[in-house]
Amino acid sequence: MTVTKTQLADAYSAALNKGLGKEWDTEFSRRDASKLLDLLWPVVSDLALKDTKKTVPGSVPLGNLGRLKMRYKAATKARKGTNPFTGEPTTFKAKPATLQPRFTAGKALKDEAASYFRKKMK
Known about the structure:
- By secondary structure, the protein is an alpha+beta fold.
- The protein has helices spanning about 5-25, 30-50, 105-120; strands at about 60, 65-75, 80, 90, 100-105.
- The chain folds into two domains: about 1-50, no CATH class; about 50-120, no CATH class.
- A three-stranded antiparallel sheet has the order 1-2-5.
């Protein structure tokens, strides 16, 4: 099942109300939760891209969910090769250096997934 942004905001507002609603004496709506999620994104992306001038950029911990890392891929030069289907020679284009985001699941998320799977398989 794919979760929509609306469903995520509903679930997040329910969690906020359960965790912080009484303490802060407020009720969080779906709109509040959606705004909070939208405000969180630039912070995480800025932190992930902070040290991108290095060939080994840093990573951003996301609590029990996991860790977001930026992976540096070096540039490649143009090269000659052969088409595996036709066997004729061809030239592969050069590619520029890029940064690619990588997510690594945390131990808590992996354990939760394993226990969910064991329950479903019984």
